[in-house]
Design goal:
The chain has 303 residues and is mainly α. Among the domains are: 73 residues, no CATH class; 121 residues. 86% of the residues lie in helices and 0% in strands. The longest helix has 47 residues.
Length: 303
């Protein structure tokens, strides 16, 4: 009896599995393919993202045609975008499109919120001015932050370059290795070093590639580094010693900058002390005495 029950159960499971394979074969194969090859899903998501980005880029392209601009202005904007880390061809379209779209959004917000009813000329003029200049201020802030990150990460780059060169690598291979190793710790300067390596592989000379690196970043310490490397290559001096000396100089300058900021804090604290802390202290210390004196004079003059 038990053998017959087990046989019936096995046959039932086989028939059920066969039915599932026949009727839900496509769904099961799709799930299996998603598990075995998850890249297909990522590819679909990437394709959808690229289509959305291209649609947004086309819309921004139509908006940026509204603004009159010269070729010189476009080149300056492209240079600023590169310094901020945006190298795509559609980046200028997004910037000029934002300079058209942001004023319209601010004016719409002023109309909906009712702020435009108080003084329409001033409110809408302010919205148009802020909306037009806002993307430029945002881009300038992005450039400054990226330059600060590059400036802070330059000593680490020099130390790793020295280690790679002393280990027997050439300057070009040391640059490529440094860009790869610092990709997660210092992504901005690693990205610029990667572009420099690609330029050298494309046939640009080492000096020109490093000059382009200095022009893209517009950081004074990077310009000094490029000049030092060019002079070292020209006169045949040791690159490792030059880089180590420059790294120590940068760290000394950073320490002096911190000491300078610390020394300025005493002067900067004068204004909050005078306007916020001293009035509170005077109120706490002289307030009770002033109240007692006022009560005494009141009693004296009443009598």
């Amino acid at each position: 009896m038990g053998f017959a029950a087990i046989s019936f159960l096995v046959i039932f499971l086989l028939i059920g599995s066969g039915g599932l394979l026949l009727f839900y074969r496509e769904a099961m194969m799709k799930r299996l393919s998603d598990v075995v090859t998850p890249r297909a899903k990522q590819t679909r998501l990437r394709d959808a993202f690229q289509q959305t980005s291209s649609s947004i880029s086309d819309a921004m392209g139509h908006l940026e045609r509204i603004l009159p601009k010269s070729q010189t202005e476009i080149s300056v904007v492209q240079q600023r975008l590169v310094r901020a880390g945006y190298r795509s061809e559609s980046a200028p379209k997004f910037l000029f499109g934002a300079k058209v779209l942001t004023p319209l959004i601010l004016c719409l917000l002023a109309m909906v919120s009712g702020l435009g009813n108080f003084n329409p000329f001033i409110v809408y003029a302010f919205a148009l001015g802020v909306g037009y200049l806002g993307p430029d201020f945002w881009l300038g802030r992005k450039i400054k932050k990226r330059q600060d990150r590059i400036r802070r990460g330059l000593p680490d780059v020099l130390d790793l370059l020295v280690i790679c060169i002393e280990a027997g690598l050439s300057m070009d291979h040391a640059t490529a290795r440094t860009a790869k190793e610092l990709e997660s710790a210092q992504p901005d300067i690693a990205d610029e070093l990667g572009v420099t390596v690609l330029e050298q592989r494309a046939g640009v000379s080492r000096g020109e590639a490093w000059k382009h690196f200095a022009e893209r970043t517009a950081v004074e310490s990077v310009r000094a580094l490029v000049n030092i490397l060019i002079q070292s290559e020209k006169f045949g001096t040791s690159v490792a010693k030059t880089l180590r000396t420059h790294s120590e100089t940068l760290r000394t300058q950073r320490r002096q900058k911190v000491e300078e900021l610390a020394a300025k804090t005493t002067v900067k604290l004068v204004f909050p002390l005078v306007f916020f802390i001293f009035p509170s202290l005077f109120l706490v210390t002289l307030g009770p005495a002033a109240i007692v004196m006022a009560e005494s004079f009141h009693k004296y003059f009443n009598h």
